[in-house]
Design brief:
Layout: H1 2-58, H2 65-78, E1 86-92, E2 100-110, E3 121-135, E4 146-147, E5 165-169, E6 183-184, H3 191-201, E7 222-225, H4 231-241, H5 260-263, E8 264-266, E9 274-276, E10 284-293, E11 299-316, E12 327-335, E13 337-340, E14 346-347, E15 355-360
Parallel strand pairs: 4-10, 9-13, 13-15
Antiparallel strand pairs: 1-2, 2-3, 3-14, 3-15, 5-12, 6-7, 7-11, 8-9, 10-11, 11-12
Helix pairs in contact: 1-2, 3-4
């Protein structure tokens, strides 16, 4: 009996020792997991801060590098990063002078449980680069033209006039030859059917760019002019395009339409005037700003891009555009706005463009 009790006591002692050792290891792993979790959380916060600071600063580029640096530092401070933790704030050049904002932050992370293993602190950092560019076409691109020197939407220097209403596909014709402003985007001679499809889907097979832009994907800056008023294609194309509204999350007042104030909101920085609040709206369109190549107009050359709000179309020259009478005119409102993270159509910065695109590139 005494021998059995002694064995039991030894076994209980061994079990207790194993439990204590296992508990020590378990607590050690738990402590390290907590430390590592805090470390990665700190790094994630710094990365978010670097991203936000770069995007805030790049909104001031390329015109004001000093303001860009100040804005980036201010945004970092709002996220709890001190001036001593701002390792680098630089304005760089990617495709256009002073078009990129680079931010690097770094701080010391204090280990809690890691001190048992001799770890007291470690450097943790993050970096981000944001670039500002301009729309490069082929996204919400409409087969209409805004002609330099012949549009109320442009000032004498060719700059878009913000909030101005004007027509882009006109009923009276442009110039002495009576071209109506329609474009054959892919040069395939598809006529009214292809023209109508371009209005509906806002895309083109050809990759267009403004004259002087050098993005690798660019195929041409020249677009064929499309003869005729295209009454049917214009009306049917716009009607079909606008069947996509109201856009989810955009129709705040319940009128089943994407209104201007729902699609575009005020930009806190003030320049550009607006931010795109509802990027999926079919009323957001891109219209090329062009010069005419000869008379009669057979081709046009893209000089820049205009971001606009599609108001609709009206009949001019007749009571109703039926039976071959009258012509459709397309009305737009010119917009000055900024997109964020719009990688699908960012090109080199273009001073003539009324839409800026800011995107994280690193």
């Amino acid at each position: 009996m005494s021998t059995t009790q002694a064995v039991d006591r030894r076994e209980r002692g061994q079990t207790l020792l194993i439990f204590v050792l296992a508990l020590t290891v378990l607590l050690g792993f738990t402590a390290m997991a907590i430390d590592l979790g805090l470390f990665f959380e700190d790094r994630r916060h710094l990365q978010n801060t670097a991203d936000a600071a770069a995007l805030a600063g790049v909104a001031e580029l390329p015109a004001n590098p000093a303001a860009a640096k100040s804005k980036a530092a201010e945004w970092a401070a709002k996220h709890g990063v001190s001036s001593g933790e701002l390792k680098t704030i630089e304005v760089r050049t990617t495709d256009y002078p002073n078009d990129t904002m680079y931010v690097e932050v770094e701080r010391q992370f204090s280990w809690i449980f890691g001190r048992v293993l001799g770890k007291t602190s470690s450097g943790v950092g993050a970096s981000a680069a944001a670039r500002i560019g301009s729309v490069s076409g082929n996204n919400n691109l409409m087969p209409w033209a805004i002609v330099l020197g012949d549009s109320t939407c442009l000032d004498p220097a060719g700059n878009p006039i913000v909030d101005m209403n004007c027509s882009v596909k006109v009923g009276a014709g442009i110039g002495p030859t009576g071209w109506y402003g329609a474009l054959d985007l892919d040069g395939n001679g598809g006529g009214s059917s292809e023209y109508q499809s371009n209005i509906i889907d806002g895309t083109a097979d050809t990759v267009y760019c403004a004259q002087g832009q050098t993005e690798p994907a660019c195929q041409t800056s020249v677009i064929d002019a499309l003869d005729g008023n295209k009454v049917g294609g214009t009306g049917h194309g716009i009607d079909q395009r606008l069947t996509a509204e109201p856009t989810a999350g955009c129709d705040k007042n319940g009128n089943r339409k994407d209104d201007f104030g729902e699609v575009f909101g005020p930009n806190p920085s003030g320049v550009p005037k607006y931010e795109v609040a509802c990027p999926a709206s079919p009323r957001i369109i891109i219209v090329p700003v062009v010069t005419l190549n000869g008379d009669p107009v057979k081709t046009v050359t893209i000089q820049g891009w205009a971001l606009a709000f599609l108001q609709g179309y009206t009949c001019v020259g007749a009571t109703s555009c039926t039976g071959g009478k009258g012509h459709w005119e397309v009305q737009i409102t010119m917009v000055d706005a900024i997109y964020s993270q719009a990688a699908s159509f960012i090109g080199a910065f273009d001073p003539l463009s009324s839409v800026s695109v800011r995107r994280l590139i690193e």
